[in-house]
Amino acid sequence: MMHHTARLCAGAALAGLLAGCGGGNGSSLLTPQPPSHITGQQAPSGITARIVGVGDSLTAGVQSNGLLGATISPNPLGAGSPFPFIPNTQGNGYYALLWSQANGGANPLNPAISPLPLIAPPGLGQILVPSSSGGLTSILPSACSGPNVAAQSLSTALSVRINPSAVPLDVAIPGQTMHEALAQIGPTGPCNASTLPAPFNALASLLASENTDFYPILGNFGPGTQVDAAVKLRPTLAVVWLGSNDLLKYAFSNGALAATAPASLEADLERIVRRLQGAGARVAVANLVDVTNAAVFTHVTALPQALVANGVPAALAPTIAAGIQAFLQSQFGLGPQALLTLTGAQKVLGAVKVSLTRGVPLAAALAGAGLSPSGDFVTDAVATQTASLNAAYNVQIAAAVGRTGAALADVHALFAQIEANGGYYPLPSNPKCCSLAYGGGFFSLDGLHPSDTGYAVLANVFIAAIDRSFGASIPPLSAAQIATINAHDPYSP
Hints:
Blueprint: H1 14-17, E1 51-55, H2 57-60, E2 66-67, H3 94-102, E3 124-125, E4 128-130, E5 136-138, H4 147-150, H5 178-183, H6 201-218, H7 226-232, E6 237-241, H8 244-252, H9 262-278, E7 282-286, E8 297-299, H10 303-309, H11 317-332, E9 339-341, H12 342-358, H13 362-367, E10 377-378, H14 380-404, E11 407-409, H15 411-420, H16 452-470, H17 479-487
C-alpha cells in the first residue's frame, strides 16, 4: 500500500475554515417538472434520456469544501489570493461530465438546460482558495454565513440557486451516508459552527453538510428523501455512489460515531438500486476508494517523505520523522498505523519549521503546536478498522450489484492501479500531473474531493461501466478533452 506524502503548508487555515450548519422549517413546495430535452439539440433517447445522480458530495460535484454553480471572476479577495477567480465546482463533477458526454457536449452550467441544482455565488459550504500569505482562505467568513443561512429554511433555500424553479436530475446530497439517502427527510440540527471549539470544526463540516445542502437540492420535490426524489424523476439511467461518508464519519470522529455494519450497508444499497430499477432505470453503482489514502490523510510512517516534500533536507528527514513519531507515541499513543489529518500534519510541519529555524527542541515545538485528538489525527485502531470496513463495504457493494444486475463502476480498481504506479496517474499532456498526494493534481484543496482532472478520470470509469453493461454509446472523454480540462484546472501543478 502506498502511503502518500503531502505538501501541506496550504492547510494552515483549514481547521478554522471548515464548519457545519443545519436546521430549517417547512413551506409549500414546487411540483417536479424535470427537463425533458436539450434546447437546440436533438433530445437523447433510450437509456440516456433521463440520467439521475444519486449519492453524496462526489456525485454533487463538491470541490475544496464548497458547492458552487458559477465561476466568480474576478476573485473578490483580490491581492489576498493568487487565484484570479473562484472556480465553479458543480460543472467539473463526474456526473456533470457524464451528462454532458451523453448530451452531445451540452453545457451543464447553462441554467436553461442544466440537470444540476446550480448554487449561486458565493456557494454553499465555505469554498477554499489559497491565500497570498500562505495557507487557505475563503470569501465567506464562516460556514454559517451568507447563503448557508438561507439554506437552512425551506422557505428561503431555493433562493441560493441560480435555477430555483428547475427540478434537478442530480439529487446527490453532500455529507449523506448510505442509510441517510434512504431515511433523511430534512436537516437534523441548527447551525452549530459558532458554538464548537476549533478542533471540532472539520468534523462538524463533514457531519453537517447534508443539513446545509438538503433543501437547496431537494426543495423542489415535496417531502421525502434523496432516493424518493430520484424515483419521482422516473430515470432511464441512474448513477449511485454512496458509502464514503460511512467511513469518513467513523474515521474523523475517531470511532465516536458508530460504524455502519457492512450487512446494513449492503441491504440499504440493494433497496436503493431496486427502487430505482422499479422506477424504470438502469443503474450503475460505484464502489469505494481506500479512503485512508486520500490526500487529506498522512500516514505516520510516511512522515519522512512528507518532510522532504515540504522542504526539509533529505538528510535530516528520517531523524526528524523519528522524533515526531516518538512524540506522537508518548503523548497520544499513536503508532505506525495512525493517520494525521490535513490540519494535524500542518501543525506538525509548523513545529518542525520552528525547531529548524529557531533552534527550539523538536519535542518542545511539537508540544506547543496544539495537536488535539479532536480533528488532528486518527488513532491506529480506528485507522485499521476504517481500512477493514472499507474492504468489507466493497465486498458488500459487489454482492448487491451482482444480485440486482446493476453495473459496477470500479473506481477502487482505478485507484489500485494508481497506487501500483507509485501514486501517480500519468497525464501525457502534463508530466507534473497527477499524483494522489496533497497538491499533486488529483484532489482539490480539501484533500477529499477530486480536482477537475480527477473528476474527468472518474467520469470515464462510469461511462465505461454503463456502455459495457447496458450497450449504451456514451462517448468517453478523450485524451484531448482531459488535456484541455487539465490545462484549465486550478488544482493541477
